[in-house]
């Protein structure tokens, strides 16, 4: 028998025990009151989040990958975070990946039985060739999803780094992880509906994991996404604005610099600020591990 009574996320919330009797405004006010507790729960685990970011960045800097694995909402949130990395930070689609119990169909339609099969996770990870150098983040609001347990167990057998993200004080996956991130969000407004507070907490943590990692890898300058992939009209315009902001130049100069840099906002900024050639800028960035601020410092040293 599954002991749901031991799971924080499955307990009944006394604050919303009569939510079905309220008018609509009172109903959403109660839900909003519960939602406001989520950032505080995340704040309590910031040290663990920071440690996870450092671990992930170190592994990715050496050419390894970040893999998210989960079932249901947790799996979809991992996939959401993964698929946003290429357009936002210009990464390869292979660098950050998301796996969900039940595969592609489960993204669009619940495949509830798939989460009960730990062997399915092993197969999914074998299919993508999980390696010792990779980082696996297991996501499960309850902390006990068999699919996620199976994935983390397999990763540990390989010697891969493991991170657990759960929202229940009693978490099996936390025991399988090198780093456990456990924002305890408490009982949901609707009992057991972990797509609500727990899902929100998971999204906030995943935002930090990927964003913090990309900052560490030099894909952010100031607070500008200088490795943005110019794959549509909106992103092309965003790249122009990034160059204009960072280099304090006109739109026309930004367009010219981006053309010279083959669409790379980071290289265009370097060209615009230093007057270097595209080849010189690429060499500076390569020498600086892709970090624009270090490349600018290096250029200044060479010029002095």
UniProtKB/TrEMBL annotation:
SIS domain: which residues?
56-219
Query: InterPro entries, from UniProt?
Result: Etherase_MurQ, Glucokinase_regulatory_CS, MURQ/GCKR, SIS_dom, SIS_dom_sf
**What is the E.C. number?**
4.2.1.126
- Biochemical pathway: Cell wall biogenesis; Amino-sugar metabolism; 1,6-anhydro-N-acetylmuramate degradation; Amino-sugar metabolism; N-acetylmuramate degradation
The catalytic activity, as recorded, is: N-acetyl-D-muramate 6-phosphate + H2O = N-acetyl-D-glucosamine 6-phosphate + (R)-lactate
Which terms does the record give in the GO molecular function aspect?
A: carbohydrate derivative binding; carbon-oxygen lyase activity; ether hydrolase activity
Please state what class of enzyme this protein is.
lyase
User: Catalytic residues per the record?
Assistant: 84, 115
GO BP, sorted A to Z: amino sugar catabolic process; N-acetylmuramic acid catabolic process; peptidoglycan turnover
> Which UniProt keywords are present, listed alphabetically?
Carbohydrate metabolism, Lyase
The record's listing under SUPFAM superfamilies reads: SIS domain (SSF53697)
Q: Which family does it belong to?
A: Belongs to the GCKR-like family. MurNAc-6-P etherase subfamily.
Q: Please describe the quaternary structure of this protein.
A: Homodimer.
This chain's function reads: Specifically catalyzes the cleavage of the D-lactyl ether substituent of MurNAc 6-phosphate, producing GlcNAc 6-phosphate and D-lactate.
Q: What else is known?
A: A lyase-type mechanism (elimination/hydration) is suggested for the cleavage of the lactyl ether bond of MurNAc 6-phosphate, with the formation of an alpha,beta-unsaturated aldehyde intermediate with (E)-stereochemistry, followed by the syn addition of water to give product.
Protein name (record) = N-acetylmuramic acid 6-phosphate etherase
């Amino acid at each position: 028998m599954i002991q749901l009574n031991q799971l924080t996320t499955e307990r009944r919330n006394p604050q919303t025990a009569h939510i079905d009797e309220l008018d609509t405004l009172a109903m959403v006010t109660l839900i909003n009151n519960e939602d406001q507790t989520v950032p505080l729960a995340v704040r309590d685990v910031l040290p663990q989040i920071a440690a996870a970011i450092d671990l992930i960045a170190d592994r990715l800097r050496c050419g390894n990958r970040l893999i998210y694995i989960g079932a249901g909402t947790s799996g979809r949130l991992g996939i959401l975070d993964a698929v946003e990395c290429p357009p936002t930070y210009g990464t390869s689609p292979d660098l950050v990946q998301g796996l969900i119990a039940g595969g592609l169909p489960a993204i669009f339609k619940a495949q509830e039985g798939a989460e009960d099969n730990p062997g399915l996770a092993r197969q999914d990870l074998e299919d993508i060739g999980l390696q010792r150098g990779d980082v696996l983040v297991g996501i499960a609001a309850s902390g006990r999803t068999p699919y996620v347990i199976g994935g983390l167990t397999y990763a540990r057998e390989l010697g891969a780094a493991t991170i657990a993200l759960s929202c229940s004080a009693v978490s099996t996956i936390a025991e399988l992880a090198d780093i456990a991130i456990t924002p305890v969000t408490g009982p949901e407004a609707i009992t057991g509906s972990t797509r609500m507070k727990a899902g929100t907490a998971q999204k906030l943590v995943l935002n930090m994991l990927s964003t913090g990692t990309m900052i560490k890898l030099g894909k952010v300058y100031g607070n500008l996404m200088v490795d943005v992939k110019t794959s549509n009209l909106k992103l092309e315009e965003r790249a122009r604005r990034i160059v204009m902001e960072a280099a304090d130049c006109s739109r026309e100069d930004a367009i010219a610099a981006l053309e010279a840099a083959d669409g790379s906002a980071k290289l265009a900024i370097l060209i615009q600020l230093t007057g270097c050639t595209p080849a010189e800028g690429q060499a500076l960035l390569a020498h600086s591990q892709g970090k624009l601020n270090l490349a600018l410092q290096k250029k200044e040293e060479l010029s002095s």
